[in-house]
Structures are given as C-alpha cells and as structure tokens.
C-alpha cells in the first residue's frame, strides 16, 4: 500500500495475478517445447498453411520463450518495473507465436492468446507512475 492508502503498481492484485499467469504460461510453454523437441509426432498439423515450420524448431522457440517468460514472472513478483515492461512485450510476442502455432494446437493456442491478452491488460492498467522523492 502506498502512503495515500491506494495500492501501488508494483504490489497491486492485477500485477501479482499477471505475474502468476506469466509463471504458469511460461512453464506450460517449456513443457510444450520439450514435447515438440523430444518427439516430432506429438503434434499433428491441421490443414495446409502458408507458415510451415519444423516442429523441432517450434519446440526450441517455445522452450526459449517459456524460460524467459518464467524469469519475467519472477521479476514481476519481486516488483521490478523493468519486468513489467518485459512482461507486456513477452505476452505480445506470445500472442504472435501462438497465432502462428494455431495449425498445430488450435484450442490451446486460442486459450493462451486469451490469457496473454489478459496479462497485457492487467500489466498496463495497474502500472502507476509515481514521482521519485527529491
């Protein structure tokens, strides 16, 4: 709580919930990446799409993004404003990556996109700019 009685941006409920969601989606992306790297037959592509990638490459993409998202979630729980900006950027990247991932896991991608949009909203609306004391 800030001295005026309101909640500050670093400790607001929306920020904490977004941090937990970042941790969860990051861990799930790590598991998704490991599954794609370990066995290319885990995911089946539905239909023909313009953007076709090797599933091993997708596995590495999800694994790296997942690790970075988990670290960002930990930073948000620690109250870092840099992690807040990184969380917004990474959730935006995750929306794009999961949109491209739609041919492989359509329902899962739609769910993760919805969670990422909520993360972006929560981090943007709970961000308060308080002047530094002189």
Automatic annotation (TrEMBL):
Keywords: Membrane, Transmembrane, Transmembrane helix. The chain crosses the membrane at residues 12-37, 57-78, 85-101, 107-128. InterPro entries: DUF7144 (IPR055568). It comes from the Bacteria. Pfam families: DUF7144 (PF23636). Residues 15-127 form the DUF7144 domain. This is DUF7144 domain-containing protein. It comes from Streptomyces caledonius.
